[in-house]
Amino acid sequence: MKTETKLFLYLAPFFVVVGVIYGFVTGWGEPVGFLGMPLLGGLVAMVGAYLALTARRIDPRPEDDEHGEIADGAGDQGVYAPWSWWPLVIGAAAALAFLGLAVGWWVLYLGFVLGVIGLVGWVFEFSRGQHAH
Q1: Could you tell me the pTM of the whole model?
Q2: Do the Cβ atoms of 19 and 38 come closer than 8 Å?
Q3: For a tag on the chain, would you pick the N or C end, based on fewer CB atoms within 10 A?
């Protein structure tokens, strides 16, 4: 995580400086640029701070070792449900929501409801409840 942390923490002051320079170049007349770029720097700084705090809590990853081998990163990388239908439901909900932006707001609300159903289904896919055997 060292590389990712440095990338985000070094980009944060860059965006702040570029936002101030942009403000001087445009005469502070265009508010989105000179406000948006320093705010982007703040967001990048928050991601960098999160990565720095997470890197202190976990063991070094194989990617952080300069002399690491490819085989060092072998093994399970997480849980994946290969036969899950819930990502398809969430994709359909996103398509319906974007269609709602073009057609009408009522379609956007239907997409939002379908998205909540799909997200809850995907999160609780492996949950068996309190009375599981």
Answers
A1: 0.59
A2: yes
A3: C
pLDDT tens digits, 37-55: 999 999 999 999 999 999 8
Dihedral angle over CA of 4, 37, 22, 26, nearest 10: 160
Question: Which two three-digit tokens encode residue 21?
Answer: 């320079």
pLDDT band of residue 77 (cuts 50, 70, 90) is: confident
Average pLDDT of the residues in 14-37: 93
Q: What is the 3-state secondary structure (H, E, C) of 13-56?
A: HHHHHHHHHHHHHHCCCCHHHHHHHHHHHHHHHHHHHHHHHHHH
Q: List CB contacts of 25: < 8 A, sequence separation 6 or more.
A: none
Query: Rounded to an integer, what distance in angstroms lies between the CA atom of residue 13 and that of residue 48?
Result: 12
Tokens of 74: 């072998």
